Amino acid sequence: MNLADPYLKTARAKEHLDALAEGLREYHASNPCKFEGQADTINQLYRMRIVLKDPPEKLSLIAGDVFNCLRAALDHLVWSLASNKLSYPLCTQFPILDKRNDKRFASQTRGVPAEAAKIIKSLQPYHGKDKSTVESHLLWQLNKLCNIDKHMRIPVHGSTVDFKLPESIAGKRKIEPDGVMSFPLHLKSQLTLYPYARHTALSHLSSGCRMPRFAEAWRFRSALLKRCLASAWSSYMASLI
Q: Which helix (H) or strand (E) holds 141?
């Protein structure tokens, strides 16, 4: 028994991550963010709106491939561990539980060495102290994103823009209900938008699944390699000594 298959899946996830990173670089290089302004001489205001072009649809598909490879790597891990005891493990998978369920856990990890199962149990989201902690757990987020991808594209939003206004304007600006920013018209000549940063988020807000930065996808893979694959495998090897 070895962990070749789980690690091959994480390596494939890395290839998808590289493709996702390249797609985001191309999107950002296309100058997707524009600032549109209009003078309101009646109310003596200058109104400015940020217009952000949607990211390419293919990025959603690539993101889905990333997370599905990572989820599959976990399932391959459990199958590999169980196959040392069972000739052909059935119904095994890496359990991801937001509520403790010992019967379900035992069914999904049947044949897995006790020490490895103990590590897997320690990684479960349900150990969180409250709902918010559970739903911010990396495994809960991973599982939710994979379930979303089964039924629809994972939404990719290019909706976060950071920029800095001159202090003379920043202190007098207002954000109107429609998202338009306004400030006194006589300050328009002082308007200079300092370099801004664009961030792309992978999220499905109605499900509670939010990943505010693309870098989080890299954190998923790193955490999976270190906490899940390596720790469960090490515990198994220790049990043989």
A: helix 138-151
- Cβ atoms within 10 A of the Cβ of 240, count? 8
CA distance 100 to 91: 19
Cα 84 from chain centre: 33
Tokens of 76: 């391959």
Using the Cα atoms of residue 173, residue 176, residue 178 and residue 179 in order, give the sign of their dihedral. positive
> What is the pLDDT tens value at each position of the chain, 241 positions in all?
567 888 899 889 889 988 988 988 898 888 887 888 899 999 999 998 888 788 888 988 998 998 899 999 999 999 999 998 888 999 999 999 999 999 999 999 999 989 889 989 999 999 999 999 998 888 898 898 899 888 888 877 665 566 667 888 888 888 887 778 899 999 888 877 655 556 666 655 455 555 545 455 556 666 666 666 665 555 544 544 4
CB 8 within 8 A of CB 152: no
